[in-house]
Amino acid sequence: MLSLHSPTPEVQSQKKPLHTLDFVKAHISSHPRFCLFLTFLFIQVLVISIARNSPPCFPPVVRDPVVSTATGDKPALVSYDEECPSGRVYVYDLPSMFNRDLPLHNCTDLNPWNWQCGIDNNHGYGGPATELRRVLPGNLSKSWYRTNQFSLELIFHQRILQHKCRTPEPESAAAFFIPFLRWTRRGEVLMGERHLQT
């Protein structure tokens, strides 16, 4: 006969507190999609926290480095100021045969598709896109141009010639720009010389 004070085995198992691990196992087996969602959320939070707290991969900018001149007489200082915190740029003055004389005015010289027609208009932006007047509202059509996909070199060349950080002295420059417009040779390279002979 059983005593009144000793509980039955079923009652003993019900009174035991469940361990946390048992609860997690039961929850994972009954809700796998929710656990997968929590896993992805945890990975995203982990990646974002690592990315925000990582040190920058770029070295710090060194101010006023000593640069030796081409003649080797004395070192010159590259000038940095409030207006140009990254330094000034010197543009080499090449003969016009390497840049200004290269854009073609005869649009049949390179290839039959005439992709360079009007590429040198408006400093590389091309002519105004008048066909968009019907589509664009108000005066917005005046801001659109027929820019060629290969004219970025010409646009950059014109912008750097008028940039506020351009310097006439190469000794005070932190960067140098050689304005050779190679896009005009693209037709010869892409189409081959057989198209140039016709």
Automatic annotation (TrEMBL):
One Pfam entry name: Exostosin_GT47
Keyword Glycosyltransferase attached: yes
Keyword Transferase: yes
Domain (Exostosin GT47): residue spans on this chain: 84-186
Taxonomic superkingdom: Eukaryota
This protein's UniProt keywords: Glycosyltransferase, Transferase
InterPro entries noted in UniProt: Exostosin_GT47
Entry GO MF terms: glycosyltransferase activity
Record protein name field: Xyloglucan galactosyltransferase XLT2
Organism from which the protein derives: Sesamum angustifolium
Lineage: Eukaryota, Viridiplantae, Streptophyta, Embryophyta, Tracheophyta
